[in-house]
Amino acid sequence: xxxxxxxxxxxxxxxxxxxxxxxxxxxxxxxxxxxxxxxxxxxxxxxxxxxxxxxxxxxxxxxxxxxxxxxxxxxxxxxxxxxxxxxxxxxxxxxxxxxxxxxxxxxxxxxxxxxxxxxxxxxxxxxxxxxxxxxxxxxxxxxxxxxxxxxxxxxxxxxxxxxxxxxxxxxxxxxxxxxxxxxxxxxxxxxxxxxxxxxxxxxxxxxxxxxxxxxxxxxxxxxxxxxxxxxxxxxxxxxxxxxxxxxxxxxxxxxxxxxxxxxxxxxxxxx
Length: 271
Known about the structure:
Layout (H helix, E strand, L loop, with lengths): L6 E4 L15 E4 L24 H7 L4 H21 L1 H15 L6 E7 L5 E7 L9 H4 L2 H9 L7 H6 L3 E3 L4 E2 H10 L12 E3 L1 H6 L7 H16 L3 H17 L5 H15 L1
Parallel strand pairs: 5-7
Antiparallel strand pairs: 1-2, 3-4, 3-6
Helix pairs in contact: 5-11
């Protein structure tokens, strides 16, 4: 392991509201090649630039009874109820995707993401693109576009919540390559990993999509994640769930013409 020194950068310019010690209020921002032993390599031959000692992760967790004791079991229970209620829809989407992509094993898409305390896991989504070369947008199926617009492609992620890898609410998990870039360009970006990543979150519903490589957008995303971490509360999480539902209903994917196109593609594939 490299013995070079770490550069400590402040997470935020203002004093930390919970009065963390100097070491805990700073997040190491390591150059490529440095890693902690407690996190596994992010990719073959690579190392983890976003990892921190466990005691620092402990100090970065939000304080309070709800955040530390009640939040995880409550959100897991809600996710379990949602999974049961959504089971018929899950089976329907699975059947359609299996038909469009050539089998049940092709209905899902797996991708490595950086999760809780820097641990890498494989996130599951419904597949939305055909195989092949070319522009990603051109390979998205009409049914896949419908799933994306409705965010139904992320429905399988409820499984991750039940397994303890994700939460219903929290900062979104980034791809390994994007996380590696972000921690080197946005000081304190990895602080959000003190919480389990969420299916929905404050930054997602208030900022929307941040394009990879856009430093200004990721700085704003980090600021919004920081705001959430500093103000975790039951009413706040309830508000995020309500706003997420309203946000999804306003999405273009719920327009009747998009649903008609998706049904049309399914009919053609069934012939």
